[in-house]
## 1
Amino acid sequence: MSLSRRAATRKSLKSKMKHEHLAGYEVLVCVTGGIAAYKAAGLVSALIQRKAATTVAMTANATRLIGPATFGALTGQPVYTDMWKQEFSADIGHISLSDRADLVVVAPATANILAKMAAGIADDLISTTLLSVAGPVLLAPAMNERMWSNPATQQNVSTLKARGHIFVGPESGWQACGKTGLGRMSEPQTILQAIEEALQHKKPKSVS
Ligand SMILES: Cc1cc2nc3c(=O)[nH]c(=O)nc-3n(C[C@H](O)[C@H](O)[C@H](O)COP(=O)(O)O)c2cc1C
């Protein structure tokens, strides 16, 4: 093989490794009922491209904004929406989703899920799963500016930060309500970077 061919092969291998650097990690993406739920599809696609084993769970409200079939097609895996479904309780169990995940991400995180997490409420699949997570959860809030700045939400955010949860965003910009303000979910690439940072010193559960 010529020198230039070898260099090109090394370069393409390096770039492949760079792109597959989440191989071995398992990420659980919880999608809640915010208008930014469609952006979660971009995040899930980016995780799959980086070879992270990605599972998606959705709240009932999220399924009204984006179909589970989108995430099913992206991950090639079942999408979990209901802990009372026979297949779910038989195969997975209501706390096992968090057991096997190296990182749990909530994107978008509604004002509602932040409040439920802060209060320890477990009344559906996602809130129950989140209450059973041992380590920090990565939260990407998205909501109208007034919902974000409401003292109730801000107090919930402070509580969750004090418990060690990681926040990415929200950012300022155009909002679905037609106004510009703080509350936009961070872009998938920014959330991906935060996921990479959260995992970089962690050994995947699959090898430990
Ligand atoms: C079209 C539409 C868009 C919504 N977008 C948001 C949002 O961006 N952020 C938010 O906190 N709530 C939003 N809501 C309200 C939530 O869906 C509502 O609070 C719901 O109870 C959240 O449930 P969940 O957290 O279980 O998904 C939206 C509602 C509708 C109808």
## 2
Amino acid sequence: MIVDIHTHITYGKYPQFSKLVDQNRKDFPVKALLKEMDSDGIDISVLLPLVNPENDGYFGVAGNIECLEAARKYPERLVSFCNIDPRCMLNTPKADLGKLMRIYKDLGCRGIGEICANLPLESPLYDNLFRHAAEEDMPILFHFTGQAGGTYGAIDAMHFPALQKLLKKYPHAKVIGHAMAFWNEIDGDMKESDRETYPKNQIKKKGYLFTMMDKHPNIYGDISAGSCYNALSRTPEVGHSFLKRFNKKLFFGTDRFTPKTPSPILNFMKEALKNKKLTKNEYDNIMYKNFKRIFTGETK
Ligand SMILES: [Zn+2]
């Protein structure tokens, strides 16, 4: 079985938004996603709505209601998260975001994300989001960045000092990390200027990501997108040792949002199993069992 924790669909009714970023981009409605899942042997996909003003509309990616409706239409194949901007409910750190979370939870949403608000993680608004997500037991999936402006994602400095404060302050918050700033921490020699890039140099020293994942029981990783594939494949021994060590804290994902999005991570995982870099149980943990355990409470 394979569960993909990171996919997006584009607006079903208004494909013209899909061309905002790229004239040649094709739209990717729910039926196109199901087709790709079938061809890759993916059983279940998690739909991540985009709602933050940094990318709402701009990528033509469906928001909360459309993702929710798609998941209710195909309950065997799709699960939806809800996305809650930390500025939601009148842009105040006093907002009772839990009320909103409970509505989405009752409608079937299993987590929150992909959170892309380009605000510092020190912001009281993010503190409020963490507090409510922890209280409501809703895992939060983040796009992280080191950059303010000209991009999207929650902002933190190298080695994620603000994130780690929040992880400690809210031990019941479950945070799933994603994107270049997160995955590039796999390299102990990473420079500040490399944070938002796809570095190709060999990894000689294990990076701070190992320390952070060891230290905090409530941080997880989503192995989707070019960012993670690059981090794991640039020095495969380091990549395999990371997968092995944290096999109970990682989720398989593709970050599909357009037809024929290449997903080299799927081959990387299959090869790792074939070449005995991972046991079948470690592989299954990453491919679906962690999802079942964390999101549905199933332990099989
Ligand atoms: Zn994404």
## 3
Amino acid sequence: MSEGPFKTLIGELTPPMRLMMTPGPSSIDPRVYRALAAPVVGHLDPWFKTCMDETQILMRQVFQTENRVTMPLSASGSGGIEAAVLNTLEEGDEAIVCVNGWFSERMYEIALRSPAKITKLEVPYGRAVDPQDVRKAGAGKKIKIVGLAHGETSSGVVTALDPFRKVADELGALLIVDTVASLAAEPLNVDKQRLDIVFSGSQKALSAPPGRSPITVSPRTEEVLRNRKKKVQSWYFDLTTAMNYWGKDRLYHHTPPISLIYALREAMRLTMEEGLQVRWERHRVNQQALIAGVEAMGLELLVKNPKERLVTVTPVMIPASIDDAQFRNQLLDEFNIEIAGGIGPLKAKIWRLGLMGYCAQKANVLLLLAAMEKVLVDQGARIQAGAGVGAAIRSYAGAEAAVATKA
Ligand SMILES: Cc1ncc(COP(=O)(O)O)c(C=O)c1O
């Protein structure tokens, strides 16, 4: 046996402290890091059961729901898609999935693995699906679910949910909504908007570490799940058995990542301490300033319709003269800032600037704009010095004046 690998001494873990202005994961509040370091207890410890109760109370507050079935799945956001789609669809069912980017495409891909017949309604990246097209596609059919992404992270598009609720009602369908990139940043009220299954991810606007997918299920969907003819293909993501642990009996299902639950609980506690409306507005104001800044530097946005701009992800077209990888590497090496490139058809065409949860702060927006200006100028772009930061400062001043006038 070669001795090589066994002789290698591995040093202490020392990850760099990056500013994560990406579409997730986002930077984490120090208070959430403290929760992560708290002592691990058993998953059936009486104290932990109370911690679970509190986690579910907070999750209902963040989702704005009284749904009994509300819990964090032991999974990243993709697990939420899988649970939502595979629990509802059976042999003989039909579903419509609205696809306007990489992640709604993932919902379609996952739905294809169910035995149901799936219709894909697709629009180009950068736009939202028209609910009218869902109405047309579903006319005369028995549609079990309509699925879509509230915030499509790959293209920075937000979809208005109410028109889809209306169409789903007309079709007699359940509405399944991916809020991985929008929960705690975009206005959402699960009960008022009568959404049937809504899931998210811990690592985006909640600013907890990746690895938990909060999910909530309406009472009428619970009924649908109870009446399934066959068991869900996935044992791990079968929502009815998973709820035996998160329900009143607290029966063992699997050993959950205790520390990640602490972190999520703290991240949601901070969200509610701030207040949902205040948090939504904070995201909006910071994105407005970021947009003012990038436009003042002569950069163009991918999403043309301001009403369709997702507050957490601002996609910016990469100018022809700028090298994508070099630009992002310099931001990382020189300023410790991570942003993301494009994916799918938008690879090497856009940068995605993330403003999620703890990251969505004035100081971060101004730093990012200043750093982008420096790196663009280094690559030969001609930008008036301070144009981006100046425009952002004016945008903040306008927002602050509007608040002062209201008070
Ligand atoms: C809208 C959306 N849905 C689903 C996912 C998948 O989540 P994860 O990568 O946590 O599995 C993402 C990830 O970025 C996302 O943005």
## 4
Amino acid sequence: MKQVAPGYTILKRYGRYKNACWVLENNGEAAVVEMPMYSAHEKPPHERLASYLRRRKLHLKYGIVTHGHVDHCKSLPEFRLHFPGTTFVTHRSMLEDRHFLSIMARNRHLPRQAWNEGSFRLFDEVYEGQLWTGTLGGEPIHLIYAPKHSYTDQLLLFRGAMITGDWYLGDLRDCNALVRPEHKVQAIDQAVDIVHRLRHHVHMLFSGHGDCLYYRVDFERMMQRSKVYH
Ligand SMILES: [Zn+2]
């Protein structure tokens, strides 16, 4: 377990891709960010989360994944089944993403015919536009739809930090070429614009995997750098 910043804890980095399972918290309320793939020898992340919440007397208000790739979302159905009182939030693009849906369809914990139909839904709140806003213990928490690494990317904004999923920061390139360069540039511009409008001072940037933790960052400069191939 690692306390990364005020209100930001990494429970553990799971599985062979070492993706983090994050807990964000404020005034008794928490959000889980990333529901990673894990190995057979690891205690399931939802169990670790449950004991963490119990010890700290936290209510799990939100469940969020930064994008629909297997290392970030594989255990989502298990979290969904174990935390029925939690609001799972995502952007519309996630429910239209065939890659994400095929990962969910292969999960042995998932009741058949899920996919946000019938009685079992993967998500409670699905936003359509660029921005979703909630609150954790009175503090705003935002999701910004901004496709760069994938067409399901959402940046998370809370208490001066941003979780950037698998964005390759400081460069237009990413570890794949799923998103067209012009869409990446547009997503970066829109994200910067939204952060300005929210008057949120972002000074920390954390990768979803928890391996890149940037403190005292010039957010604007980092975003401008991310619009160019270096
Ligand atoms: Zn990843």
